Amino acid sequence: MGAKLQQEWNKTWKHVSAICNLLESADEYKALVALRALITKKNELERYQQEVCNAIGADNIGNAITMIKASSHGRAGLFQLPEQLQKIPQLWLEGRAETRKQKGVLKMTFFQAERQHRRLLPYLEDAWKVAGQRDSELAEMLKEQILQSYEETSADDMTKFCYAFVNDYELEEEEEKTERLVLNATSDEIERTLDYMLDPNRIYGVVSKEQS
To answer: Are 206 and 166 contained in the same domain?
Structure first.
């Protein structure tokens, strides 16, 4: 073997030995196996990173991690909420027809309800936190009120409820408005309203001779 060839051989073997040491392999064959496994893991990791970026809406994994940390910090109170508030209310998925005593609730698809639930969570957390700051007996009563309202109202009404609860606002109920209008009305106004509602011509769409 010529001197130059020997020199190249020694140089190549030196690099092979370095690779074996880096891969903690006893010989070049085991190093090759380990290198192939490492490349496979690298490709899998890159695929997982891309999936995370796509799910978060980030352009790279660094920004994705930053967004996840910020989101986790902001949702720290989520784990303090009872399980009932972490689930979509059944009412949102089924809807409810409007009656004289209850407001109607528009039926939503699962994805619509899921989106509304995510938007509502910060308000739920704030309301739950405020309720927990009261005396134990009052706190339990307030929390029960939140849970009941959550199951019986729409997403929009629940958001207003939570905001008013946290900021100590007095929201006027629809029934109270109706009752006040009736109480403030004169007897003649009430009588004319009843006559109009009970008029058979109005109900069946018949126009009287006097009106024609």
So the answer is: no
